[in-house]
Amino acid sequence: MGSVFFLVACAIAAAVAASVARSRRADARARSLMALAERLGLSYSAVDLFHDAWQPFPLFGLGTERGVENVVYGTLGEVEVRAFDYWYRSEDPSHLRAEPLLASRTTRYSCAGVGLGASCPPLVVQRHEAADRLLELVEGDLVELDLDAFNRRFAVRSPDRRFAMALLDQRMMAAVLTLPDPATLLVAEDRLLLVAPGLPAQGVEELLRAAARSQAAVPHVLASLYPLRAGFRPQDRAPAASDAARAAAAIDPAGEPSDTTGLWWF
Predict the structure, then answer these.
(1) Least packed by Cβ within 10 Å: which of 46, 104, 256, 265?
(2) For 30-39, b where at least 16 C-beta lie within 10 A, e where not — what string?
(3) Angle 190-192-198 from CA coordinates, rounded to 5°
(4) β-strand 65-76 against 43-45: which pairing, if any?
(5) Each residue of 52-109: pLDDT tens digit?
(6) Torsion sign (Cα): 158, 160, 164, 165
(7) How many CB atoms lie under 10 A from the CB of residue 229?
(8) Which residues have C-beta within 8 Å of that of residue 2, sequence separation ≥ 6?
């Protein structure tokens, strides 16, 4: 009986220690991204101020639980940008009975996005050696492009080959070739998103700058080929004042809310 109590006590102690370690990592992560936002002249929210947990990408439907945190947003250069941490939790049924503590796994991504002036079909551009295979979350055929150097490094998939060819012209391919090494490019509806396995603050900055460069390289013809359509989001509105106040309170102990007017993405 004593050995059972000992094992239970060890399990509880391990769980508490793990919880404390996670809390410290989360605090350090928040501080580093707040510092990044301040240095770049952007704003920071600890919570999902802009409802980023809803996105028109299959990635945001994975797992049994999911969430968004650590949002960095504002204008970088002349481009409205937003970066955030996205996580989802999935369960492994094989562990549910034998090892309950191993039954769930959390996957984390760093994301940076910009708006597009068009409503686009789904598209993914991913390096051939990528381990997470986000390429498989988009239906359609693989698309070969005209630049051999691009085809050797990246795979492109979309259900609309015409769209892929229109988006990935020579200028856009040149921009994609400069993406940070772990980044995958996703396009759907009126947004372009760069996604990478959890990055440090410096990597998030690189992702933000790459997203801004990518928006500048998007062909203007897309707006006429795929006109922007309104109303596809569950909430086409700016965040309510209560949302902004809650986010400001979470990051500003002095209780001085920052101005969020005009920062609604896209």
Answers:
(1) 256
(2) beebbebbee
(3) 140
(4) antiparallel
(5) 888 899 999 999 999 999 999 999 999 999 999 999 998 765 544 444 445 578 999 9
(6) positive
(7) 10
(8) none
Distances (CA, A) of 180 to 128, 154, 173, 245, 251: 14, 13, 14, 34, 29
Q: What is the DSSP string of 143-191?
A: ---S-HHHHHHEEEEES-HHHHHHHS-HHHHHHHHTS-TT-EEEEEEEE
- Please say whether the dihedral angle defined by the alpha carbons of residues 35, 37, 39 and 41, taken in this order, is positive or negative: negative
Collapse the DSSP code of 59 into the 3-class scheme (helix H, G, I; strand E, B; otherwise coil) and give the result: helix
pLDDT of res. 234: 46
What pLDDT digit, counting tens, does each position of 160-175 carry?
A: 999 999 999 999 999 9
Q: Is residue 21 predicted with pLDDT exceeding 60?
A: no
* pLDDT value for 240: 42
10 Å Cβ neighbour count for 197?
A: 15
The Cα 32–Cα 22 span in angstroms is 15
For every residue of 61-121, DSSP letters joined together read: G-SSEEEEEEEEEEEETTEEEEEEEEEEEEE-GGGTTT-GGGSEEEEEEEEEEEEEEEEEE
Per domain, the residue ranges of the chain are 2-251
Is 95 buried (19+), middle (13-18) or exposed (0-12) by CB count in 10 A? Answer: middle
Q: Which tokens go with 235?
A: 């909430």
Contact 99, 76 (CB under 8 A): no
CB-based contacts of 128: which residues, under 8 Å, 6+ apart?
152, 153, 154, 155
